[in-house]
């Protein structure tokens, strides 16, 4: 520390490099911390790039083999079970991540209660899932598929709960490997089924096996890292945990409804085929949004670790704004200009069906663009004890979405669902910005947001010009990508000094 105070030694150089990223963090730890965190993010993204594109292509092939109506039915079942499963732990997963990140001894004290509590909640919610499915009109074999899909998702939720301990201990690379294991296994299973013929039953069964195997691997790993935990359900601990986690459970529920209710309502109010069109478009949204859902939990743990340190939260937000948004700008621009090429595998679809899917896709990717700018703000709020206003905000957007769905889905189908989703995303994101500024007291990086918007506008202009000149999607994408790199430097979103600092 003396070197920093007197200006001698390496301290000032470290501090100046650190100022490029998080100037309010400790000058000796900042550069090491940001380089390691940036490395964690890069590793997670790399793993997902190795697995997720292959999975998307295989799922396109599955939909083409099963047909839009059959796949639409499965998607409706999957999304309903996902909504129920996402809230099955009543917010204990997020609570555990926050508490362990702030207080490591929380794990030893509360895990003997959390593990059996989570198991009993899963059994309870499986019954709720099947019962509610019956009330929605699913019977017979369809209800059996719903039960199997739901059981798989509940095991997946338990897996994510265990992964939360790894994130809270900042074991991001280990968590990254486990995050892609299930998809990698499922990719292998589905490819093995294609030669013998894939049916809906076999597809659901393959998903169940992949989820179960991933859970066994993770449970064994957590036991090895932190020791075997004896189940001791202490009711006073359970009551305290549930009371503290319920606000997080409400957020999870409203987020699940907000993201997934459209698919279910389409299948029930319009037709299974319309749900299939929407599923084909939303699959690409899910694939790209995986970048957000992979990176944002890392920031969730970092924000929770910086609870009560407003300057550090602000620096994380300002740094994260570029990390989260920049990669998605290029993807969104490409889809807006050449989205139709993503459906090249759906060879059994008519031109009208392809038109419906393409229009829905482009509208949904404007929604992705909105999330790219503002999803990080929600992460900051929910990780720093502002869950309640976020819950009310998202709940209001769900009410608007459901009302619009009831009015518009029977007539306009998948396109209306996409438009409703976009409108609600805009409303909620505006609320996030207001809450971060007024409730959390963290300054919004308006200058960075303006540069990001400028970069996106220039990129769209580049795509439009290249389409007129080249009229070939691959050449346009390569050319726009090269120009985009220049745009990032020209707008100051990426600076040479930052890149040099990361290399040192």
Automatic annotation (TrEMBL):
Keyword field contains Transmembrane: yes
Membrane topology term: Multi-pass membrane protein
Keyword terms, alphabetized: Cell membrane, Membrane, Transmembrane, Transmembrane helix
Signal peptide region: none
InterPro entries listed in its UniProt record: Poly_Biosynth_Transport, Polysacc_synth
GO cellular component: plasma membrane
Xref: Pfam families: Polysacc_synt
Record protein name field: Uncharacterized protein
């Amino acid at each position: 520390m003396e070197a920093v105070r007197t200006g001698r030694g390496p301290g000032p150089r470290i501090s100046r490099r650190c100022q490029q990223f998080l100037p309010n963090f400790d000058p000796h730890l900042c550069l090491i911390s940001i380089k390691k965190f940036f490395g964690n993010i890069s590793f997670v993204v790399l793993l997902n790039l190795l697995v997720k594109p292959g999975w998307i292509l295989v799922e396109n092939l599955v939909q083409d083999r099963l047909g839009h109506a059959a796949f639409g039915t499965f998607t409706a079942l999957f999304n309903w079970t996902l909504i129920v499963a996402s809230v099955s732990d009543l917010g204990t997963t997020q609570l555990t991540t926050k508490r362990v990140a702030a207080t490591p001894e929380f794990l030893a004290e509360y895990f003997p209660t959390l593990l059996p509590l989570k198991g009993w909640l899963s059994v309870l919610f499986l019954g709720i899932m099947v019962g509610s499915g019956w009330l929605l009109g699913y019977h017979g074999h369809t209800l059996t598929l719903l039960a199997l899909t739901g059981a798989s998702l509940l095991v997946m939720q338990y897996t994510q709960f265990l992964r939360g301990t790894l994130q809270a201990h900042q074991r991001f690379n280990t968590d990254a490997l486990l995050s892609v294991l299930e998809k990698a296994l499922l990719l292998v299973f589905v490819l093995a089924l294609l030669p013998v013929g894939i049916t809906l039953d076999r597809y659901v069964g393959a998903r169940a096996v992949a989820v179960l195997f991933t859970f066994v691997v993770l449970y064994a790993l957590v036991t090895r890292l932190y020791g075997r935990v004896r189940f001791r359900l202490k009711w006073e601990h359970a009551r305290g945990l549930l009371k503290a986690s319920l606000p997080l459970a409400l957020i999870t529920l409203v987020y699940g409804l907000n993201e997934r209710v459209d698919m279910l309502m389409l299948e029930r109010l319009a037709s299974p085929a319309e749900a299939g069109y929407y599923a084909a478009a939303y699959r690409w949204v899910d694939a790209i949004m995986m970048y957000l859902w992979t990176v944002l939990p890392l920031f969730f743990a970092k924000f929770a670790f910086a609870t009560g340190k407003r300057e550090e939260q602000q620096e994380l937000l300002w740094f994260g704004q570029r990390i989260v948004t920049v990669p998605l700008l290029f993807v969104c621009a490409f889809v807006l200009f050449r989205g139709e090429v993503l459906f090249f595998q759906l060879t059994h679809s008519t031109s009208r069906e392809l038109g419906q899917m393409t229009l829905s896709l482009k509208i949904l990717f404007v929604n992705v663009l909105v999330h790219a700018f503002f999803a990080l703000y929600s992460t900051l709020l929910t990780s720093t004890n502002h869950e309640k206003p976020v819950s009310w905000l998202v709940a209001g957007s769900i009410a608007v979405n459901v009302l619009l769905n009831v009015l518009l889905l029977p007539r306009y189908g998948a396109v209306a669902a996409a438009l409703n989703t976009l409108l609600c995303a805009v409303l909620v994101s505006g609320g996030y910005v207001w809450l971060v500024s007024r409730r959390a007291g963290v300054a919004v990086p308006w200058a960075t947001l303006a540069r990001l918007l400028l970069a996106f506008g220039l990129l769209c202009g580049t795509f439009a010009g290249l389409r007129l000149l080249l009229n070939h999607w691959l050449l346009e994408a390569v050319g726009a990508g090269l120009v985009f790199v220049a745009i990032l430097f020209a707008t100051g979103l990426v600076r040479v000094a930052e890149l040099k600092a990361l290399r040192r």
